[in-house]
Amino acid sequence: MDRIIGAVLGLAAGLAVVLLGLWKEVPLKDSMWRALLAVFLGYLVGWVFGKAGLSIVKEAAGPVPPPPGGPAEAKGPGTPPAAPPAKPD
User: Fold this and answer.
1) What is the reported pTM?
2) What angle in degrees, to the nearest 10, is found between the helix axes of 28-61 and 2-23?
């Protein structure tokens, strides 16, 4: 997940640099080098802060509770249902 955060931030930074370069009429060669650098640095920043953010969220969430119903209901798909209890005579 932290790599996805880094990739999105890097692509957003690269796009912003390209658009700003076009708006300010910077030569395309210079704009592309700056965009490449922005993508790389944006990815690194997003990766570092994504890792830190995910660890903070996991710590705040606490332990994951077990599924309800105990191990008998946690068999998974494809298992036959349990036989109904016998009726007393």
Assistant:
1) 0.59
2) 150
The number of beta carbons lying within 10 Å of the beta carbon of residue 46 is 23
Q: How far is the C-alpha of 23 from the C-alpha of 85, rounded, in Å?
A: 75
Q: Is the dihedral of CA 46, 52, 55, 60 positive or negative?
A: negative
The encoded tokens of residue 39 equal 């993508």
**Tell me, what amino acid is at 26?**
V
- Residues 6 or more apart in contact with residue 41 via CB below 8 angstroms: 10, 13
Is 31 or 89 the better-scoring residue by pLDDT?
31
Taking only the tens place, the pLDDT of each residue in 27-65 is 989 999 999 999 999 999 988 888 888 888 888 888 877
